[in-house]
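re: ur question from yesterday

yeah so i grabbed the chain u mentioned. its 376 aa long if i counted rite. heres the sequnce exactly as i have it in my notes:
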Amino acid sequence: MRKAFCFFVVCFLLCHFLHAQNLYKGVVVDAQNAKPIAYVNIGIIAKGLGTVSNEEGVFQLPLEFTKYSSADSLQFSSIGYKTLKKAVTDLQLANTLGTMIRLKPETIALDEVVVAAKRQVFEKELVGYGFEDARIVGYWKDDVALGGELATKIEVKKAYRRLKEYSFRVLENPSDSLLLRINIYNGKEGIPKSNLSNANILHLLKTKNGKVTIDLRPYHIVVYDDFIVSMELLQVYGEKIGLVLGANANEGISYKRYASQDTWERIRGSVMAYEVNSDVELTGKRAIRKTKKDKKKLANARSISGGVFFQGKPLTEVQVTNLNTLQKVETNEKGRYALKAEAGDVIEFNHLDMNKVLKKVTQKPFVNASMERKEN
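ran it thru and got these structure tokens back, copy pasting raw so excuse formatting
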């Protein structure tokens, strides 16, 4: 029999016994441009009642006012915006249009995502906890609350570390698909608190059984110390709800919370089997040896080339970077480039006016890219 150490069973939103007069609903928008904000965490702090706005910023939350006092607050929080709190006693119940919630943009401080631009000597390192035993699991089941999270603390030696890939093991997934958000928190604050990413890391999970790997490189997350990786439920597609994930009997630290803005609880005895592939900075003699080894490897590496295009026309001044070796070049007046790369390396195409593009190198000696203009 499986040892199940995490059980999410919080009913929310569409419970049949709730009536319209108990429904608090609305839309969350940007205070500056009135555009809807997707996937905002909404909930009464530490009360186990919460949800997440949908892709159009719309939300609805059942409220029984007799359960709450003037000291209870409904909190709205989202990456890139200032957190907003409203006293439960000040809330108005549902009407035809609902309430408009305006969140003010917040500038992300540079030290929230550590940038180690001058430190270029890195070595690959896999950290975290691997999947070992199918009898040890963590899972969501039945009417899981949106915004519910499963998190694991990843303990590492102090050093600058670029996070590249996050992996976990799906054992069962009866849902058609699940929309997840991956959160990376500061690991030195006791519980998950400060998010180290300045963008939403979203993944539509369709895998029924097997290992899932999510690319973190586009988000340029660099840590120096312990960090926490969390999987958060944003949306469930289909009639069946549930997800069984691999865990590990190792004496690590995992946390859970049942809904948005709920209290974190520590899980003891087992940890979620989360692994993170990273590049860790080397210093001293190790850095010197690694630099010599990389130079020799780069000298012997094959060259690849290609063209970068926008609407079928060559695009100049595109920065082309091998994310594995950090070699950088720019496209010429014909939109062409050439650099050293091996099969499996990831090439990043970056232009001031265009959306970033990532391409994985195959056995072919060329990699082309077509770019699209950024939306205003």
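noticed a couple things. The chain has one helix and 30 strands. also The two ends are 54 Å apart (CA to CA).
anyway ttyl
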